[in-house]
Design goal:
By secondary structure, the protein is mostly helical. It has helices spanning 3-12, 15-20, 25-28, 32-41, 56-62. Helix 1 runs antiparallel to helix 4.
């Protein structure tokens, strides 16, 4: 998996969510925010990379 995709998954989902609901690529691609991200990143060159920020929901969970 490309590094930017891996980082985006962890920015949006907890380890528990990944284990329970999104344990496969097909399941991940059903997540609305990941669908948007995949559509966007497909337009970028193969070596494209930007820093990934945690989602607001994930930031609230850390408090």
């Amino acid at each position: 998996m490309h590094r930017i995709c891996h980082r985006q998954i962890h920015a949006l989902l907890t380890e528990t969510e990944l284990a329970r609901k999104y344990a496969s690529v097909d399941a991940l691609l059903q997540h609305p925010q990941l669908q948007e991200f995949v559509a966007w990143v497909k337009t970028k060159p193969d070596d494209f990379f930007v820093r990934t920020s945690k989602s607001a929901r994930m930031k609230r969970r850390q408090r």
